[in-house]
Amino acid sequence: MAIEQEVLVVGGGLAGVTAAVSAARTGADVRLVSYKQPTLRNASGLIDVLGYTPDGEGPLVDPFAALDDLPEGHPYERVGADAVESGLALFDDLTDSTYEGNHTERNALIPTQGGRVKPTARYPASVAAGLASDERDALLVGFERLVGFDAPLSAARLNAAGAPFEARGATVEFPVALSADPKVTRFAHLLDRDEAGEERQEGSVRRALVERVVTHLDGEQRVGFPAVLGDDHPEEVRADLEADLGVDVFEVPMGPPSLPGLRLEDRLYDALDAEGVRIETGNPVVGYEAGADGDRVEAVAVDRSGATVPYAAEQFVLATGGLVGKGIDSDREGVEEPVFDCHVGHPPDRYDWFDDRAFGDHRFARFGVDPDRELRPRNGRGAVEFDNLRAAGAVLGNYDFAAEKSGSGVSLATGFHAGRLAGENT
Questions:
Q1: Which of 77-91, 314-328, 345-359, 391-405 has the lowest mean pLDDT?
Q2: Domain FAD-dependent oxidoreductase 2 FAD-binding, which positions (predicted)?
Q3: In the structure, what pLDDT confidence band is assigned to residue 411 with cuts at 50, 70 and 90?
């Protein structure tokens, strides 16, 4: 017997969570099924809308001003500016005061671990004091055993890029003896607990860290640390460091695994619970059943410990990710969407998938399903494949989220739009 719900969302990343919440707020009974861990934990935690145009112009000051000029088929062109704004508004509601940027439509410029500046629309409160538009000088602090963040190098690159402030970098030993290559969560948990246990006789880890940093301060009014300042209590950790240092403290976004990404994941999954969405993780969707006419999905097949179980629904949302997340798959024979076998347009010659130049126009970056304005995937002739299936997030084609810095915004806008339409059509 099939497990039944009104809306079934396949995929547990930002697009899937947004779609599930959006559908639930229409009053629909919603279930989210995800196989792998959400990609949120590998992301920076920054929420980009549009940092650069498809032609490479940017960084953009106002991403909304560029939406009308996007090419036909781009996900933003499919859903419209209202969905972009609604997706951001939903995100603001779910994250409450833990994120900033909703006071303006303009992009903020955030320094990253490599000393680059990234345009983004929403950012964790923990990075707010580090905005590149802030003219106050900054000291960047790295840790000897945290090889992912070279503070002096990041500072030098910011200065070379013409940041409107002077940046200096310093590297200190973390107050607790750690292994040669500790996980970022190790630093965070030690700062959360604020005690070292057997690894240190007594005292506060936070206070000991302040003692090591304060000797490097030379008039700077803000200090940036790698984004490891706590997992369970990041606001408390940062507040203690600020009070003892006497300056503003901010986090510099890091690569995966990302503490801001993990914090965001926790908050969004708490929101799913609060909205009454049922969540199942660890079980892959391996196929689907279509109705007699072939124009509707009746159920998906979920592999549960080797037994295939049907999950039936009135409406489905596909949010499994792109090439990186295996929501779009490829081999020497071609490119496919593996759950519903939706059409993915691509050149038949594999050598036309990419450009010879490393930073050229790589067509594979835009592979994905091609939806109508209700985000229903279309076949190669432009006809809707299934009336009750919608797609959201990186599984969509016709845009290059990495080059545009638009991945999170597309996930929010299309997730909101797909989820709302799914819920309203139950």
A1: 345-359
A2: 7-410
A3: very high
Measured CA to CA, the distance from residue 174 to residue 208 in angstroms comes to 9
Q: Is the pLDDT confidence value at 196 over 70?
A: no
User: Quick one: pLDDT band at residue 201, thresholds 50, 70, 90?
Assistant: very low
Round to whole Å and give the CA distance between 418 and 207.
48
Q: What span, in angstroms and rounded, lies between the C-alpha atoms of 109 and 130?
A: 9
Q: Six-digit token pair at 184?
A: 């970022």
CA pair distance 137, 145, nearest whole angstrom:
25
Q: Distance between CA 150 and CA 288 in Å, rounded? A: 48
pLDDT at 157: 96
CATH topology of domain 3-99+262-424: FAD/NAD(P)-binding domain (3.50.50)
278: amino acid identity, one letter: R
Using CA atoms, how far apart are residues 186 and 171, in angstroms rounded to an integer? 18
Burial of 294 (0-12, 13-18, 19+ CB in 10 A): exposed
**Beta partners for 309?**
302
Task: Calculate helix-pair angle for 184-193, 205-214, nearest 10 degrees.
Answer: 110
SS3 category, 3: strand
SS3 content of the chain, % helix, strand, coil (to 5): 35, 20, 45
Q: What is d(CA 234, CA 189) in angstroms, rounded to the nearest whole number?
A: 10
Q: Which residue has the tokens 């106002």?
A: 62
Nearest to 177 by CA among 139, 128, 144: 144
State percent of the chain over pLDDT 70: 98
Q: Among 42, 39, 32, 66, which residue's Cα sits nearest to residue 52?
A: 66
79: tokens are: 């859903």
- 36-55 mean pLDDT: 89
Distance CA 139, CA 123 (A): 20
Does CATH number 3.40.50 belong to domain 113-252?
Answer: yes
Under DSSP, the state recorded for 298 is E
pLDDT at residue 114 tops 60: yes
CA 99/CA 93 separation, integer angstroms: 10
List the structure tokens of 225. 């640390």
Q: What ranges do the domains of the chain cover? A: 3-99+262-424, 113-252
